[in-house]
Amino acid sequence: MDHSDPIAIAQELIRCRSVTPEEGGALRYLVKVLADAGFTVRRMTFTEPGTPDVDNLFAKVGAGAPHLVFAGHTDVVPPGDEAAWRHPPFAGEIADGVLYGRGAVDMKGAIAAFIAAAIDYVRANDGRIRGSISLLLTGDEEGPSVNGTAKLLAWAAERGEKFDHCLLGEPTNPDNLGDAIKIGRRGSLSGTITVTGKQGHVAYPHLAKNPIHSLMRIMTELMSETLDHGTDHFDASNLEFTSVDVGNRATNVIPSQARARFNIRFNDRHTLQSLRSWLEMRCAKAAAANDVTCEVEYAQGNSEAFLTQPGPFVDIVRSAVRDVTGRQPALSTSGGTSDARFIKNYCPVLEFGLVGQTMHQVDERVPVADVTALTAIYRRVLETYFA
Ligand SMILES: [Zn+2]
Q: Of the listed 120, 141, 339, 364, which one is catalytic?
């Protein structure tokens, strides 16, 4: 098989049933492809009590700086009702120039594109490149993200690997290939506010302290505050309440507790710590004014906002996208979180991949032409980066 054909690689990958945390043969296949092309390949399984074991892969060609690393995940979300698919989710079928399958855009197509580009680049230079190209591939992005990229990065750092820049192949384009490069991500803080008052009979409210009244006041106050007006690269930070719960079935009882769950998506004007302080200060003030107690608890997995400042690396990727697609990509920080939140602690990271429209949906699919164009973009990035 020609390992520089991104479509063939994408089809092979889609045929592997790698629903998180199953490896499904996807990494085993890539080990062969990359080893055949002269990469040094290591596979490792990471474990942690309470989470499934996950397979990961590190591959490298060349030596020293500059060191460009491509990051991605071979795991996919479940297909849902397989009968609802026009083409089976793990068949890798092409119809009318469109490749169907779970992971086509998120993100087996992009992995195939980068591998084909890297193999072609290494081959065109007779295996001699001015620096290093490596790949960090995990099977734990769509799951708990515990035994994946975070541990893979630590493992590589322990072995003395120093990355200068990272390209993450998540689907970043809303409508057309070339729409957007992600240069950062908003942070995310989730938690629960619990107000405790005093239970009592509704006919004798003076003997009780209704926590619902106080919770509503706290919520109204928090919602009426403007966190910021956005920055050059980020939208304004935003707090959303996602649930309000009392769980009281009685009609004649004032409950003792009321809870509200919230999520804040925030930009680089804030940190997790500054937002926690803000919330706790507001709650303490409201609790004192209403003679109740108010506690804030935080969920697991909250993340900081980050930004890769525009500069030479951003320019390389931007020019490659423009040269191949004719589009001037926006520099975006929108959307949810990704493994970039771990990578940014090691080196500047950009995200550019396929069009995300059908990700996680029935009939996930990608035009073959998009995979070919993305391969050309990654190939140009390599050419310029190592020039
Ligand atoms: Zn993804």
A: 141
Active site residue 383: no
Say whether 161 is catalytic.
no
Indicate which residue of 12, 23, 55, 75 is catalytic: 75
| Ligand 1 center to 72 CA (angstroms) | 8
Q: How far is the CA of 73 from the centre of ligand 1 (A)?
A: 7
Spell out the SS3 assignment of the chain.
CCCCCHHHHHHHHHCCCCECCCCCCHHHHHHHHHHHCCCEEEEEEEEECCEEEEEEEEEEEECCCCEEEEEEECCECCCCCHHHCCCCCCCCCEECCEEECCCHHHHHHHHHHHHHHHHHHHHHCCCCCCCEEEEEEECCCCCCCCCCHHHHHHHHHHCCCCCCEEEECCCCECCCCCCEEECEECEEEEEEEEEECECEECCCHHHCECHHHHHHHHHHHHHHCCCCCCCCCCCCCEEEEEEEECCCCCCCEECCEEEEEEEEEECCCCCHHHHHHHHHHHHHHHHHHHCCEEEEEECCCCECCEECCCCHHHHHHHHHHHHHHCCCCEEECCCCCCCHHHHCCCCCEEECCCECCCCCCCCCEEEHHHHHHHHHHHHHHHHHHCC
If you measure from the C-alpha of residue 227 to the centroid of ligand 1, how many angstroms do you get, rounded to a whole number? 29
Instruction: Give this prediction's pTM.
Output: 0.89
> Mind listing the pLDDT tens digit of every residue in the chain (387 residues)?
567 899 999 999 999 999 999 999 999 999 999 999 999 999 999 999 998 999 999 999 999 999 999 999 999 999 999 999 999 999 999 999 999 999 999 999 999 999 999 999 999 999 899 999 999 999 988 888 889 999 999 999 999 999 999 999 999 999 999 999 999 999 999 999 999 999 999 999 999 999 999 999 999 999 999 999 999 999 999 999 999 999 999 999 999 999 999 999 999 999 999 999 999 999 999 999 999 999 999 998 899 999 999 999 999 999 999 999 999 999 999 988 889 999 999 999 999 999 999 999 999 999 999 999 999 999 999 999 999
